[in-house]
What does this fold into?
Amino acid sequence: MTGASAGIGVDIAECFAQDGYNVILAARTESALRDVADRLAKAYGITATPIPADLGAIGGGQKLADAIAQKGLTVDVLVNNAGYGRAGAFNGSDAATQLGMIDLNDRALVELTHIYWPRMIANRRGGVLNVASTAAFQPGPLMAIYYASKAFVLSFSEALWEEARGTGVKVSCL
Ligand SMILES: NC(=O)c1ccc[n+]([C@@H]2O[C@H](COP(=O)([O-])OP(=O)(O)OC[C@H]3O[C@@H](n4cnc5c(N)ncnc54)[C@H](OP(=O)(O)O)[C@@H]3O)[C@@H](O)[C@H]2O)c1
It folds into this structure.
Protein backbone atom coordinates (compact mmCIF):
# COMPACT_ATOMS: atom_id res chain seq x y z
CA MET A 1 0.00 0.00 0.00
CA THR A 2 1.78 3.15 -1.16
CA GLY A 3 0.98 6.61 0.13
CA ALA A 4 -0.35 5.15 3.36
CA SER A 5 0.78 7.91 5.73
CA ALA A 6 -1.97 10.42 4.90
CA GLY A 7 -5.13 11.04 2.92
CA ILE A 8 -6.94 8.44 0.84
CA GLY A 9 -4.20 5.85 1.39
CA VAL A 10 -4.92 5.69 5.11
CA ASP A 11 -8.58 4.98 4.41
CA ILE A 12 -7.80 2.31 1.82
CA ALA A 13 -5.37 0.67 4.24
CA GLU A 14 -8.10 0.73 6.87
CA CYS A 15 -10.53 -0.98 4.47
CA PHE A 16 -8.04 -3.81 3.96
CA ALA A 17 -7.34 -4.04 7.70
CA GLN A 18 -11.07 -4.21 8.38
CA ASP A 19 -11.24 -7.17 6.00
CA GLY A 20 -8.48 -8.91 7.98
CA TYR A 21 -5.55 -8.29 5.65
CA ASN A 22 -2.10 -7.71 7.08
CA VAL A 23 -0.82 -4.48 5.56
CA ILE A 24 2.52 -3.05 4.53
CA LEU A 25 2.39 0.74 4.63
CA ALA A 26 4.82 2.77 2.52
CA ALA A 27 5.42 6.52 2.22
CA ARG A 28 8.25 8.91 3.08
CA THR A 29 7.19 10.03 6.56
CA GLU A 30 8.10 7.25 8.95
CA SER A 31 6.49 8.76 12.06
CA ALA A 32 3.11 9.10 10.33
CA LEU A 33 3.37 5.56 8.95
CA ARG A 34 4.05 4.24 12.46
CA ASP A 35 1.01 6.05 13.85
CA VAL A 36 -1.24 4.57 11.15
CA ALA A 37 0.28 1.11 11.57
CA ASP A 38 -0.16 1.16 15.36
CA ARG A 39 -3.76 2.30 15.09
CA LEU A 40 -4.76 -0.28 12.48
CA ALA A 41 -2.99 -3.13 14.27
CA LYS A 42 -4.74 -2.31 17.55
CA ALA A 43 -8.15 -1.70 16.00
CA TYR A 44 -8.30 -4.76 13.76
CA GLY A 45 -5.87 -7.29 15.24
CA ILE A 46 -3.81 -7.44 12.06
CA THR A 47 -0.08 -6.96 11.45
CA ALA A 48 0.75 -3.56 9.98
CA THR A 49 4.32 -2.99 8.85
CA PRO A 50 5.49 0.57 8.14
CA ILE A 51 8.31 0.90 5.61
CA PRO A 52 9.62 4.37 4.74
CA ALA A 53 10.22 4.78 1.02
CA ASP A 54 10.66 7.61 -1.45
CA LEU A 55 8.88 6.31 -4.52
CA GLY A 56 9.55 9.49 -6.46
CA ALA A 57 13.21 8.52 -6.60
CA ILE A 58 14.28 6.45 -9.58
CA GLY A 59 14.52 2.85 -8.36
CA GLY A 60 12.40 3.66 -5.30
CA GLY A 61 9.97 0.85 -6.09
CA GLN A 62 12.71 -1.76 -6.26
CA LYS A 63 14.19 -0.43 -3.02
CA LEU A 64 10.81 -0.79 -1.32
CA ALA A 65 10.38 -4.32 -2.71
CA ASP A 66 13.85 -5.22 -1.40
CA ALA A 67 12.95 -3.90 2.06
CA ILE A 68 9.71 -5.90 2.01
CA ALA A 69 11.57 -9.08 1.00
CA GLN A 70 14.19 -8.50 3.69
CA LYS A 71 11.42 -8.59 6.27
CA GLY A 72 10.27 -11.92 4.85
CA LEU A 73 6.99 -10.43 3.67
CA THR A 74 5.17 -10.97 0.39
CA VAL A 75 2.59 -8.87 -1.43
CA ASP A 76 -0.69 -10.50 -2.46
CA VAL A 77 -2.49 -7.27 -3.25
CA LEU A 78 -0.63 -4.19 -4.42
CA VAL A 79 -2.24 -0.80 -3.92
CA ASN A 80 -0.57 1.98 -5.89
CA ASN A 81 -1.98 5.09 -4.27
CA ALA A 82 0.95 7.49 -3.74
CA GLY A 83 0.66 10.45 -6.05
CA TYR A 84 0.56 14.21 -6.26
CA GLY A 85 -0.71 16.94 -8.53
CA ARG A 86 0.42 20.52 -9.10
CA ALA A 87 -1.68 23.14 -10.82
CA GLY A 88 -0.37 25.87 -13.09
CA ALA A 89 0.52 26.60 -16.67
CA PHE A 90 2.99 24.27 -18.31
CA ASN A 91 4.84 27.31 -19.62
CA GLY A 92 7.19 28.50 -16.92
CA SER A 93 6.62 25.47 -14.72
CA ASP A 94 9.36 23.77 -12.78
CA ALA A 95 10.68 20.78 -14.73
CA ALA A 96 11.52 18.76 -11.63
CA THR A 97 7.98 19.14 -10.31
CA GLN A 98 6.43 18.11 -13.62
CA LEU A 99 8.74 15.13 -14.09
CA GLY A 100 8.36 14.21 -10.43
CA MET A 101 4.63 13.71 -10.98
CA ILE A 102 5.38 11.24 -13.75
CA ASP A 103 8.02 9.51 -11.62
CA LEU A 104 5.64 8.99 -8.69
CA ASN A 105 2.19 8.73 -10.31
CA ASP A 106 3.32 6.52 -13.21
CA ARG A 107 6.89 5.28 -13.04
CA ALA A 108 6.79 3.94 -9.48
CA LEU A 109 3.34 2.45 -10.09
CA VAL A 110 4.63 0.55 -13.13
CA GLU A 111 7.82 -0.45 -11.33
CA LEU A 112 5.98 -1.99 -8.38
CA THR A 113 3.38 -3.65 -10.57
CA HIS A 114 6.12 -5.11 -12.75
CA ILE A 115 7.82 -6.55 -9.65
CA TYR A 116 4.74 -8.22 -8.12
CA TRP A 117 2.72 -9.11 -11.22
CA PRO A 118 4.59 -12.29 -12.32
CA ARG A 119 4.07 -13.99 -8.95
CA MET A 120 0.39 -13.10 -8.96
CA ILE A 121 -0.07 -14.51 -12.46
CA ALA A 122 1.93 -17.65 -11.59
CA ASN A 123 -0.12 -18.19 -8.42
CA ARG A 124 -3.37 -17.32 -10.21
CA ARG A 125 -4.37 -15.04 -7.33
CA GLY A 126 -3.79 -11.55 -6.08
CA GLY A 127 -4.66 -8.09 -7.24
CA VAL A 128 -3.58 -4.61 -8.13
CA LEU A 129 -5.55 -1.50 -7.17
CA ASN A 130 -4.33 1.64 -8.91
CA VAL A 131 -5.54 5.02 -7.71
CA ALA A 132 -6.17 7.29 -10.67
CA SER A 133 -8.64 10.18 -10.63
CA THR A 134 -11.53 11.58 -12.63
CA ALA A 135 -8.66 13.59 -14.15
CA ALA A 136 -7.96 10.41 -16.11
CA PHE A 137 -10.99 10.98 -18.33
CA GLN A 138 -10.00 14.22 -20.07
CA PRO A 139 -7.06 16.52 -20.70
CA GLY A 140 -6.50 19.12 -17.98
CA PRO A 141 -5.24 22.49 -19.12
CA LEU A 142 -3.32 24.21 -16.29
CA MET A 143 -2.79 20.81 -14.71
CA ALA A 144 -1.65 19.09 -17.89
CA ILE A 145 0.89 16.63 -16.52
CA TYR A 146 -1.26 15.51 -13.58
CA TYR A 147 -4.23 14.78 -15.84
CA ALA A 148 -2.01 13.01 -18.35
CA SER A 149 -0.35 10.99 -15.59
CA LYS A 150 -3.76 9.78 -14.41
CA ALA A 151 -4.89 8.98 -17.97
CA PHE A 152 -1.81 6.75 -18.08
CA VAL A 153 -2.85 5.02 -14.84
CA LEU A 154 -6.35 4.32 -16.16
CA SER A 155 -5.17 3.13 -19.58
CA PHE A 156 -2.47 0.91 -18.09
CA SER A 157 -4.93 -0.54 -15.56
CA GLU A 158 -7.54 -1.35 -18.21
CA ALA A 159 -4.95 -3.07 -20.38
CA LEU A 160 -3.63 -5.09 -17.44
CA TRP A 161 -7.19 -6.06 -16.52
CA GLU A 162 -7.58 -7.51 -20.01
CA GLU A 163 -4.23 -9.33 -19.79
CA ALA A 164 -5.30 -10.82 -16.46
CA ARG A 165 -8.62 -12.12 -17.80
CA GLY A 166 -9.06 -15.77 -16.78
CA THR A 167 -6.00 -15.82 -14.50
CA GLY A 168 -7.81 -15.12 -11.23
CA VAL A 169 -5.79 -11.94 -10.71
CA LYS A 170 -7.89 -8.83 -10.20
CA VAL A 171 -7.08 -5.36 -11.48
CA SER A 172 -8.99 -2.33 -10.27
CA CYS A 173 -8.62 1.37 -10.92
CA LEU A 174 -10.09 3.93 -8.57
N1 LIG B 1 -7.56 14.01 -2.83
C1 LIG B 1 -8.25 14.02 -3.97
O1 LIG B 1 -9.20 14.80 -4.15
C2 LIG B 1 -7.89 13.06 -5.06
C3 LIG B 1 -8.74 12.97 -6.16
C4 LIG B 1 -8.44 12.07 -7.16
C5 LIG B 1 -7.31 11.30 -7.07
N2 LIG B 1 -6.49 11.42 -6.00
C6 LIG B 1 -5.29 10.56 -5.96
O2 LIG B 1 -5.33 9.80 -4.79
C7 LIG B 1 -4.02 9.50 -4.35
C8 LIG B 1 -3.85 9.93 -2.91
O3 LIG B 1 -4.14 11.31 -2.85
P1 LIG B 1 -4.39 12.08 -1.46
O4 LIG B 1 -5.30 13.20 -1.75
O5 LIG B 1 -4.74 11.11 -0.41
O6 LIG B 1 -2.92 12.69 -1.26
P2 LIG B 1 -2.16 13.11 0.08
O7 LIG B 1 -3.12 13.37 1.18
O8 LIG B 1 -1.23 14.20 -0.34
O9 LIG B 1 -1.33 11.79 0.42
C9 LIG B 1 -0.36 11.35 -0.48
C10 LIG B 1 0.30 10.13 0.08
O10 LIG B 1 1.36 9.76 -0.82
C11 LIG B 1 2.60 9.79 -0.11
N3 LIG B 1 3.68 10.24 -0.96
C12 LIG B 1 3.81 11.45 -1.55
N4 LIG B 1 4.97 11.52 -2.21
C13 LIG B 1 5.58 10.32 -2.03
C14 LIG B 1 6.83 9.78 -2.44
N5 LIG B 1 7.70 10.49 -3.17
N6 LIG B 1 7.15 8.50 -2.07
C15 LIG B 1 6.29 7.77 -1.31
N7 LIG B 1 5.10 8.24 -0.89
C16 LIG B 1 4.76 9.51 -1.24
C17 LIG B 1 2.37 10.76 1.06
O11 LIG B 1 3.20 10.49 2.15
P3 LIG B 1 4.62 11.18 2.43
O12 LIG B 1 4.44 12.65 2.16
O13 LIG B 1 4.87 10.82 3.84
O14 LIG B 1 5.59 10.52 1.50
C18 LIG B 1 0.93 10.40 1.43
O15 LIG B 1 0.92 9.22 2.20
C19 LIG B 1 -3.09 10.23 -5.32
O16 LIG B 1 -2.63 9.33 -6.32
C20 LIG B 1 -3.98 11.30 -5.92
O17 LIG B 1 -3.55 11.71 -7.19
C21 LIG B 1 -6.74 12.28 -5.00
About this structure: DSSP finds five helices and five strands in the chain.
